[in-house]
Amino acid sequence: MNEQRPAQFRGPGASPAAPAPALNVGFILTDNFTLSPFSLFVDHLRLAADEGDRSRPILARWQIMASKAEPIRASCGVTVSATGPLTDPSAFNYIVVVGGLLHTGPQLDAETVAYLKKAAKLGVSLVGVCTGSFVLARAGLMTGRRCCVSWYHYQDFLEEFPHHTPVADRLFVIDGDRITCAGGGGAADLAAALVEKHIGRSVAQKSRHVLLLDRARPGTEAQPHPPIADLVADDRVRRALLMMEQHMADPLPIADIARRLQLSTRQIERLFQTVMGQRPAEFYRRLRLRYARFLLDTTVRSVTDIALEAGFSDCAHFSRQFKAMHGFTPSDARAHGPGPAAQSMAAQRLFE
After folding, report:
1. Domain ranges, residue 350
2. Is residue 90 part of a domain?
3. Do 42 and 170 fall within a single domain?
4. Residues 204 and 234 occupy one common structural domain
5. So what's the pLDDT on residue 230?
6. Whole-angstrom distance between the N-terminal and C-terminal Cα of the chain?
7. Please, what is the Cα angle at 200 between 86 and 11, to 5 degrees?
8. Which of 18, 123, 222, 283 has its CA 20 to 30 A from that of 311?
9. Do 254 and 150 share a structural domain?
10. How many other CB atoms are found less than 10 A from the CB of residue 200?
11. CA–CA gap between residue 106 and residue 102 (Å, rounded)
């Protein structure tokens, strides 16, 4: 099959005489895909595939597949050429869909989506990296599965797929033969985990060391996040903060947050008191009130609408809480209106 491909449509590991590798990965790059997670993933495979830095596809093999021979453009403007057409899915251990920009038109053509559905029927493990999770969900391939997304695209995912429950406090999630990864550096961690599973721990360690990555991060580790969580050393508190940020309009009970972190309510109360100097419920309320102040300073939405967006069902209660924290009412804030300096500092105040 491979020997019949046009020369420009061949890639590493194309020789049919080569022995079967321990790990064989097919890549599908979407239009405007994100280059960094793709390159990190491929380099882990490259370094794991051979001794030293010789890059021969012996223990691992990879192929960039496409329905057409035209180069595929990354979101940064770099183009990558496919190394082969859409190959029999059963030839791969994993088929990795690397996503990127969400709102620039279709990410994949109908032929490629049909190929992914065929692969799913054959039981091939499908991997969505970055917004590749959106591609798999749009194809109906994530129904009933946990789906990891970047915190940055959490709300986008909820709005497009209201019946799914996205996970945005982890680097990647393995749910049977569906694997989703938030992207960025998390792709390196996922690639290392797959290399370790199929080839061995020492090989995965070698790949990390050559790439100057100091440690293996499990998929359960919290995603790096904006300033509110950046300075928090305790991973459990960071993950709790992520959940709070992701549930402003529909605040989670503290007991629910504790359960998701496999903690008791008493444990999370003690953790927050030690790390944040406040009880979790108090911190959550202040976070929502700061978010409301941000919306008042940067939008023209009504006070009632902002109260609901910040998770307060009673506007009068919201006004009392807001005044207790800020020293003036939401209506006062809206009446005075923010100046240019206030608008430029609004986002910073959200995380103060």
Report:
1. 228-352
2. yes
3. yes
4. no
5. 55
6. 60
7. 25
8. 222
9. no
10. 14
11. 9
Say which DSSP state 128 is in: E
CATH for 46? 3.40.50.880
Same domain, yes or no, for 248 and 205? no
What pLDDT digit, counting tens, does each position of 27-79 carry?
Answer: 999 999 999 999 999 999 999 999 877 889 999 999 999 999 999 999 999 99
Residue type for 145, please?
R
pLDDT interval class at 197 (50, 70, 90)? very high
CATH of the domain at 326: 1.10.10.60
Q: For residue 41, is it within any domain?
A: yes
- Asked, for residue 236, whether it belongs to a domain, the answer is yes
Alpha carbons 55 and 44: distance in angstroms, whole number: 10
Are 235 and 352 members of one domain? Answer: yes
Task: Give percent of the chain above pLDDT 90.
Answer: 62
CA distance 48 to 55: 8
215 found inside a domain: no
Q: Which residues pair with residue 72 across a beta bridge? A: 80
Go through 214-247 and write b for each residue having 16 or more CB atoms within 10 A of its CB, e for each that does not. Answer: eeebebebbbebeebbeebeeebbbbbbbbbbbe
Lowest-pLDDT range, 101-105, 107-111, 210-214?
Answer: 101-105
**pLDDT, tens digit (0-9, with 9 covering 90-100), for 199-255:** 999 999 999 999 999 888 899 887 765 556 556 778 889 889 888 888 888 899 999
Q: Please name which of 110, 43, 98 lies closest in space to residue 72, comparing C-alpha atoms.
A: 98
pLDDT score recorded for residue 231: 62
Mean confidence (pLDDT) of the chain: 87
